[in-house]
């Protein structure tokens, strides 16, 4: 069921009401008290809010510390690292991108 809920394409993803019909929801013997559910939801909201605050703080710091030219250069580097163009850098993309930059540095500066 989790895989079907996390399917990227909405047309292939099950709906919330279809998910609620799954036997797991009907056979679960564990009852969550309403105050526990409220605490869980509150914790999730706080986590999301802290993530948004952290992102906003990082964006502010980056905007204050970099010139327009530096920002354009950072965007160019990011795009060259982002091999699958999803707007995020995976560990593998960072490693490959850094290796390419090192190789270019070595060859372009005539070190080898």
Notable features of this structure?
112 residues, mainly alpha, 3 domains, 70% helix, elongated
What does this protein structure show overall?
The chain is mostly helical. It folds into 3 domains: 30 residues, no CATH class; 34 residues; 46 residues. It has 6 helices and no strands. The longest helix is centred in the middle third of the chain and has 32 residues. The chain is elongated and about 70 Å long. The termini are far apart. The mean pLDDT is 82.
Overall domain count: 3
Helix content: 55-70%
Largest sheet: none
Number of strands: 0
Low-confidence stretches: none
Tally of DSSP helical segments: 6
Query: What would the average pLDDT be, to the nearest integer?
Result: 82
Taken as a percent bin, the fraction of beta residues is under 5%
Rg from C-alpha positions?
23 Å
């Amino acid at each position: 069921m989790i895989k079907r809920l996390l399917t990227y394409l909405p047309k292939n993803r099950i709906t919330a009401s279809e998910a609620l019909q799954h036997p797991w929801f009907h056979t679960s013997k564990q009852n969550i008290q309403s105050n526990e559910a409220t605490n869980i939801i509150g914790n999730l909201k706080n986590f999301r809010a802290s993530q948004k605050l952290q992102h906003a703080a990082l964006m502010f710091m980056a905007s204050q510390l970099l010139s327009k030219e530096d920002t354009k250069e950072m965007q160019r580097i990011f795009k060259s690292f982002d091999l699958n163009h999803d707007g995020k850098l995976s560990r593998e993309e960072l490693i490959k991108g850094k290796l390419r930059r090192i190789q270019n540095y070595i060859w372009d500066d005539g070190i080898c």
